[in-house]
Design goal:
alpha+beta; 9 helices; Arc Repressor Mutant, subunit A; Archaeosine Trna-guanine Transglycosylase, Chain: A, domain 4; two-stranded antiparallel ribbon
């Protein structure tokens, strides 16, 4: 679930507690968490709703239900997602951790069906802040599967998302150096 920076800041300040989305199927689930650019959110409830109430609209940052409905018009089921800010993204500390114990083994597992991790790390290192679609094209890949692979590297603390594109974290740089040496 992508959220705009203004929404994330409002959630962090406690000003927003609801996100409204129209989806074919939910991309988050009740009881889960969501790591964002500003930190980790708790997903307290995901519920399909028939209509937007004024209370939900205001809790989601809209002036009224009519304004929310106007922006949310389209295909799919309407969902109300109750969220709250939990704290810092746990991957932030991981990005600074250059202890590679277990990371190289995790990368070998990711490469088990065909090597890709070193090439993606190299590409991000060579082209920081480059659009994901551009990077995927350089590898002859589709953008969505490429982004999914980058998210796997991000979960290991190896990459950081930028406003546009990615860069290697200190941990990612250390892993890349270790991969090149070994």
């Amino acid at each position: 679930m992508l959220l705009k920076m203004a929404q994330l800041e409002a959630i962090r300040r406690g000003e927003l507690s609801v996100v409204l989305r129209r989806w074919r199927r939910p991309t988050v689930r009740s009881g889960g968490t969501l790591n964002t650019a500003l930190g980790q959110l708790a997903i307290d409830q995901v519920e399909a709703v028939e209509a937007v109430t004024d209370a939900d609209a205001v809790s989601a940052g809209y002036p009224s239900a009519a304004a929310a409905c106007s922006e949310l018009a389209g295909e799919g089921t309407l969902y109300r997602i109750r969220v709250r800010f939990l704290g810092a993204d746990p991957r932030a500390a991981l990005r600074e951790d250059t202890d590679l114990t277990g990371v190289l083994a995790a990368l070998r597992r990711l490469d088990a069906r065909g090597p890709w991790t070193a090439r993606v790390l190299d590409l991000i290192a060579e082209h920081p802040a480059r659009r994901a679609g551009d990077l995927a094209a350089m590898l002859g890949r589709e953008t969505l599967p490429f982004k999914q692979d980058v998210r796997k590297l991000k979960a290991l603390g190896l990459t950081e998302s930028l406003e546009v594109g990615y860069r290697l974290s200190p941990r990612g740089q250390a892993v890349r150096k270790a991969m090149m040496a070994g």
